Amino acid sequence: MTTDHPAQAAPGPASGLVLPQYERPAGVHPPLDSPDYRSTGLRHPKEPLVLLPHLLTEVTGPVLGDGRVTKDDADLTQWDGGEALGQRIVVRGRVLDSDGRAVPDTLVEIWQANAGGRYRHLRDQWPAPLDPHFNGVGRVVSDSLGRYEFTTIKPGAYPWKNHHNAWRPAHIHFSLFGRAFTQRLVTQMYFEDDPLFFQDPIFNSIPDEKARQGLISRFDYEATQPEWALAFSWDIVLRGSGATYFETEDVDADDE
Amino acid sequence: MPTTSDGRPGLTASQTVGPYLAIGLTWEHGEEAVDPGTPGAVTVSGTLYDGEGVPIPDGMVEIWQAHPDGRFHHPDDPRGVAEAPPGFRGFARAQTVDGGRWSVLTLVPGAVPGPDGTTQAPHLDLSVFARGLLDRVVTRVYFPEHAGVAGPGGHAEDRVLAAVPAHRRHTLVAQQVDGGYRFDIRLQGENETVFFDI
Ligand SMILES: [Fe+3]
pTM for this one? Predict the structure, then answer.
C-alpha cells in the first residue's frame, strides 16, 4: 500500500525505508515548567529531553474509530432519558495537519463541565449542581475531509484553587490521535471574549500569542441551527511534515 | 485558525488533560492492547511518581508498539500494512488509579528496523498525560531479556538507547516480574525517567 505523504526525503531513517518525517514545533506548546500553574512544579522533568528520531514506531499509530464510537456519541445533550440544561451549541471544525492537509478518519474525544461548571467526577466537589441528563463525554471520527461535529451545551466556568479566586475560562477538553504517534494531541477549546483569560495560567502557559488565540473557537452564525442551537467553529492543526502542501479541493468553501 | 509567516496553518497548542481525564478518556478494555487469554500476553505495569516520590493518581499512560514480528498495521510502514495477530491492537491506555499504579496487557513486540541498516530493540512508545503536565511526555519501554543480545534486536545496537546518557539508560528498561514486567515512571527527581523530544 502506498502512502499519500509527500515523501519528505528522510535521510536514511531506515535502510531502504523512506518514512514520513514530522516537524518539531518550537514555541507552540507550553513549557512543562510553568510556575504560575502550580501543579507543574513537581511534575515537569528536569533532565534534558533526548531527541527521538521519527522512526517506524513514531510515524505509525493506532487506527481507532468505528469500534469505539456510536452515532449517539456526537450528541452530548441527551443522557439518561432526558435533555441537558444549558445553551445548546454545535461545535464543529476540521482536523488538519500543518501542511494544510485534512486528517480524515481520526478519533476526536471531548469531555467538559456542565452548564454550571461542574464535572461528573468524584473529585469535583464544588457546590454547583450536577445535571442528571449531562455526562459531558463525546466522541466522533473525522470524515474524509477531516471534519468533525458535536452537539453539546456551553460549559460553565469553574473555580480551581490554583491561586486566589482562580477560575477556569469555559473550555472543552479535546483529545486527538492523528495518523501517527508523533501527532497525538490533548488540548482545550475556549470561547471568544471570555473575561477569565487574563487570570488563567493554563491558557496563558502558551508562550506565543498567535498559538494562544488558536485555541479560541469562533462564533459561527452560519452554522447555527434555527430554533435549535448556536454554533462555534474550531479547526485543529496537528503536526505535518513542515513541507508546503495545499489541497486542490476547496473544502473551506462551506466553512466560511 | 492562525497561520504561520509562510501561510501554513499554525499548530494547535497542547494543554493539560486536567484532573478529570477519566470522564472523557475511559474506554471499556482500554488497558488491553491484546485480548486477555491470548498466548504470550503479558502485563506491563508500574507506578507514576512526581518529584517528591508521591504517586500520581490522576494520570494516564498510553502505549503504542509493533506486532511480535516487528511490523505495524499502518499505511506508513513502507514494508506494507501488516495484519495484526488475532486480538492484538498494539495500543492501550490506562489510568493511574489505585496509588498511581497503571497496567496494560500486551504482547512483547518484535525488533524494528532502525536507521542506517541497524535494528531497534523491541520497545513500546509510551506517553504520559496528567494534571500538571501541559503537554504529554514521551518515553520508551525496553525489555530486560534483550539487554545482553549482541547484534540485531539487542540493546547495544539500538540507536535510540545509544543516544541516552549511559547512566540513565536503566530507566528505560522494564524489570521482569511475575506475569510480565514492571516499569515505574518518575517524572522528576532521583532516577528521573528519560523522556524524549518527539
Ligand atoms: Fe476542565
Answer: 0.93
